[in-house]
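Researcher: Re-running this chain for the archive, since the previous output was lost when a drive failed. Same request as before.
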Amino acid sequence: MKIEKIKSCPFCGGKKIIVCRTNLDACWIRCDKCWGEMESDSTRQGAIRKWNREKERTFDTKIVEDGDKEYN
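Model: Regenerated structure tokens:
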């Protein structure tokens, strides 16, 4: 089995990354600097793969200001 290296945080670039596990079916990765997290996986390797792929994803965002009609 190939062991993947955990990349830096895709949100803030932080280097201190924590592997979290609450039970045998839930493992996820968290940044200790900004607390950014990735969705959980049932395996450690699956969680690492999801974390490492995050930089490759793109997101559609919309900036909403307090005065915008859609926001109020």
